[in-house]
Design goal:
- The chain is about 50% helix and about 0% strand.
- By secondary structure, the chain is mainly α.
- It has one domain.
């Protein structure tokens, strides 16, 4: 039996599959990221994935948290999460 601490969280699995995800799934991941950034309104009026990605990048860089750990996810930093989800560095 595996210990709960060694299990990968559902948000981590979702994020790692983003490149293969249908549009609805990628929006769900983007909304999770916005909530973790403390900005649930980050994507107001935006529906294009590239715009959401740029808003995420601007918010992470603007807050200066690229090297801080993501709260409620894992030991991954915001910069590492962004790179894993979007396939490019901050």
């Amino acid at each position: 039996m595996r210990r709960a601490a060694s299990r990968v969280s559902k948000p981590a699995i979702d994020a790692s599959m983003r490149m293969q995800a249908p549009q609805g799934q990628s929006l769900r991941i983007d909304l999770w990221i916005a909530r973790r950034l403390g900005r649930p309104d980050l994507y107001s009026g935006v529906t294009i994935p590239s715009q959401r990605m740029e808003r995420q990048r601007a918010e992470i860089v603007g807050q200066g948290i690229g090297d801080h750990r993501v709260v409620g996810a894992s030991t991954e930093t915001w910069g590492a999460l962004f790179e894993r989800v979007h396939g490019e560095a901050l």
